[in-house]
Amino acid sequence: MPSLIVNGQPLEMRADPQMPLLWGLREVANLTGTKYGCGVGDCGACTVLLDGQAMRSCQVTLAQAEGRSVTTIEGLSRDRSHPVQQAMVAEQAIQCGFCTPGIVMAAAGLLAANPNPTEAEIKVGITNLCRCGVYPRLVRAVVRAGRALRGQESVAAAPAPGISPAQAAQAVPALRRPPQTKD
């Protein structure tokens, strides 16, 4: 059973070591922020940080991740305060949101390696696909997040989550009940 560090916590995956890390995170660890997109490493929806480097988790097996540190979107910042998350909101670089976790993780990995990338370096370093076409805003968001990480700017665009996952889970059954009528 592969053991790894996920979002700073030791985790033993009770799964086939040849299972893609993506499915280990989603199905075994219940970390569903990492998205399945193409399954062949092209789209980047499944991007996580593996020992600090952006990697497509659909292309890494649990065996290959053994003993390594994995950071998912859930572990990047619990309160959405990471500069990349804040800059993505501030620059309106989020549309439907499906690709956003992978893009945020790719940007975080790029900025960890190079806190002051040029526009060209951003375009080469973040190859995630976005069907909504947020690319110009994405570049601005990464530049802005870089400035924030270097202490040159403060970005506070996204509020902390307003409802906990536990509260959301409890609210769902109430939302599915048919409306009560008075006879």
Automatic annotation (TrEMBL):
Keywords recorded for this protein, A-Z: 2Fe-2S, Iron, Iron-sulfur, Metal-binding, Oxidoreductase
Full protein name: 2Fe-2S iron-sulfur cluster binding domain-containing protein
SUPFAM superfamilies, sorted: 2Fe-2S ferredoxin-like (SSF54292), CO dehydrogenase ISP C-domain like (SSF47741)
Any one Pfam family match given in the protein's UniProt record, by short name: Fer2
Residue ranges of every copy of the 2Fe-2S ferredoxin-type domain listed in the record: 1-76
Keyword DNA-binding: no
Disordered: annotated span: 154-183
PROSITE patterns in alphabetical order: 2FE2S_FER_1, 2FE2S_FER_2
Keyword Iron tagged: yes
